[in-house]
Amino acid sequence: MVDIIKRLARLNVNVIETPSLPAVIDLYKERVNTLNELAASIAYFYQKPVIEQAAAEKHLTAEIKPVIATLAGLLKVVDWQAEAIHHAINEVVTQYQLKFPKVAMPLRVMLTGIAQSPSIDQVMVLLGREEVLARIANH
Predict the structure, then answer these.
(1) N or C: which end of the chain has fewer CB within 10 A?
(2) How far is CA 115 from CA 5, 14, 107, in A?
């Protein structure tokens, strides 16, 4: 744990109490091969993500903004558990007659800065409702 905190510090990332660092590491442990890769992958949990330009251009389109706005409205009142969050995303997918990735990918880019992450509902649980809604509102 100390090793990852040091590596995050080298990236100018200060680990705060929430989300729980062990929970974040658990989410990524199967996705990375080195501690440096782990630190770079989880930095967005503790600081605002830098949005990859290519991911933004591909996924943060004018067409998706009303969909994400509808989702944000649901997220304000949903029970903050992965299953309930997943259900809210599915509700919006159904309402707008989209496929799940058409909503999950832009959401992932808004929340993590990149198009690849663990399950978006799990990421959202760890980020917390206030942080998720704030990151969505910034786009």
Answers:
(1) N
(2) 25, 23, 9
Residue 9: predicted pLDDT: 93
Query: What is the predicted pLDDT for the residue at 135?
Result: 96
The pLDDT tens digits for 21-77 are: 999 999 998 999 999 999 999 999 999 998 999 999 999 999 999 999 999 999 999
* CB neighbour class for 124 (10 Å; exposed up to 12, middle 13-18, buried from 19): buried
Residues 41 and 64: their CA atoms lie apart, in Å, by: 25
Is the domain spanning 49-139 CATH 1.10.10.350? The answer is yes
Rounded-to-integer distance, Cα 61 and Cα 84, Å = 26
Say if pTM beats, i.e. exceeds, 0.85.
yes
**68: three-class secondary structure by DSSP:** helix
State how far the Cα of 117 lies from the Cα of 102, in Å rounded to an integer: 15
| Contact indicator for 72, 137 with CB cutoff of 8 Å | yes
